[in-house]
Amino acid sequence: MEEKKVMLSGIQPSGDLHLGNYLGAIKNWVERTDEFDNFYFMADMHTITVRQTPADLRRRTLEQLALYIASGLDPEKNTLFIQSHVHQHAELGWVLNCYTMFGELSRMTQFKDKSAKHKENINGGLFTYPALMAADILLYQPDFVPVGEDQKQHVELCRNIVQRFNGLYGDVFKVPEPYIPKAGARVMSLTVPDSKMSKSIPEGCVFLMEKPEDIARKFKRAITDSDTENCVRYDPKNKPGVANLMSIYSAVTGKTYAEIEKEFEGQGYGALKPAVGDAVIETLRPIREEATRLLADKAYLESVYRAGAERASYVAEKTLRKVYKKVGFVAR
Ligand code: TRP
Fold first, then answer.
1. What's the whole-number mean pLDDT along residues 271-295?
2. N or C end of the chain: which has fewer CB within 10 A?
C-alpha cells in the first residue's frame, strides 16, 4: 500500500473559533481526511505568548476540540491533540531556537504587529514563536501545512531552518510546503471588509458557537458597498463587502458566483444580507448542537485527546531522538 502524504496544522485557542476558521481551515481539513494522514492540534503553547486568563484558555481549548469533531473531523482518521500534551514540541522547539537567527525572527511581520499591540508584554516567547512553530511542523515530517496567508512567512522560515539543519547534519527533516486552499480561503470581516474576519473586530465576526439571532443581526448589519449600483455582482476590487458576502454564500451553499448573481438579479444588497445570514445559520446549527453535546461528555473528549497525544507523541519521539543524536546529545 502506498503511504499517504502527511498533512498538519494547528489553530491557537486564543479566541473562540469563528466562521473564518471554519470556512478557511477546518472545512478543508474535513474534505481531505481520507486523502492524507492528518495531524491537527490546539496550539495552546503558542497562545501564552500573549497573556491569557487560565480558565478561559482551558475552556477554549476543549471547545476547539469539540468543534473540530462536530465539524466532521473524525478522531479515528485524524490525530487530534493538545500541543502541550506532547512534550516533544517544547524539546524540539528549544533545539530549533538554536538554529534560528535573530535577524530572521526580527523580520517576522506577526512579531512586529503583536509587539506593537502588546507593548507591555514583548516577551521572549513572542519573539521565538516561529521556532516553536517549526518544531510543531517538523516533528511530524508533513508534506503539506495548510495555513492562512498570515502564516506563510512562518512556514517559509521553517523551510529555511530545515535547509540550515539538513545542511549541517544530512537529510533529517523533510521540506514542508505551505498549502493554501483555493475556495473560501479568506473570509473577511463583515464590518471592515478589507480586514480578515477576526475576534478583534467582534461585530464583524461570526463565532461558531454563537446564537442564531446574533448571527442574523451581524449579517443584517454587514457593510455592503457605497456604490450607487446596488447590484449583486462579484467584484472584489470595487465591491469588497458584497464580494465577501458572496464568497461566504458560495462556500456554504456550493453555488457559483454566476448562480448567485442570477439568484439576486433585480434585487439589491438588502436581499443578499439576510439570505447569507440564513444559510450560515443553517450550516452552523448542527455543528453548534453537536459541539454542545460533546462538551457535556467530558469523558469522551478526554479519551479523544489522550489517544491523540499518544499517537502524536509516538511519531514526534522518533524525530526528536534522531535530532538529539545528530546534534551530539548522549543517548539516554
Ligand atoms: N501560528 C499559527 C497561527 O497563529 C498556529 C500554529 C502553531 C500552526 N503551530 C502551527 C499552524 C504549525 C500550522 C502549523 O495561526
1. 97
2. N
